[in-house]
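In this section we walk through a basic example: taking a raw amino acid sequence and producing a predicted 3D structure, encoded as discrete structure tokens. The instruction is simple. Fold the sequence below.
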Amino acid sequence: MTDKTALEAWLKKQDFHEVMPLPASSDIRRLDFTANNSRLAEIDLKDQVAFHNYVFNEMIYGTKGTAGVGGYMEPRVLYQRSDHFGGEEPRSCHLGIDIWMEQNTPVMVPYEGRVHSLADNAGFGNYGPTIILEHTSPAGPWYSLYGHLSRESLRLEEGQLIAKGEVFADLGTYLENGHWPPHLHFQLMIDLQGNRGDFPGVAAPAAKAQYTAICPDPNLILRLPVLHD
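The resulting token sequence is shown next.
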């Protein structure tokens, strides 16, 4: 199995291409989907229009930004909008980083890789179209996941080589991306645990340590100052 500590050290030394055409750092807003944001309780998160308007018109554009990001390992109340995250212990711990931008925004490969698998994970609250890429490193293989894409993005084939910086997907509309305001869920893994075209993007609090051990911080690649605590 890939050595996570060694991989993280290697990732810090690499020169990655941007994953999306992000604006200047001053125009990127960190979005709070935790219980600390009391405004969330006033929004009907199952109402697609109300949720979209809140994210873009109030959280992003309302503060004169042009993109929003959501944090790694953030404990979110957001997932109460969908039964997809239910269970004996509801899932609430976000395992990736979200980048909220307009639909059809292009998605690029930060580091050369091959298409490991892809799938349309349909259903309210799910990923919708999803692509997983496999990459190599001296520490062993690692994987990057891209969720909430357009269905057109699934035109790729397993095993296909994607060059660093190549546009290979774009953001889907709410009708195809699991009924979310347009955004990219970007996540890293060192062990797919047998999954293909899918991998949990949210964990139950009791499983946080388990997933932290196999899901490195995506900001090792994105390097967004707004996410630095």
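Looking at the output, two observations stand out. The mean pLDDT is 92. The helical segments are 4-13, 48-60, 208-212, 219-222. In the next section we compare this with other chains.
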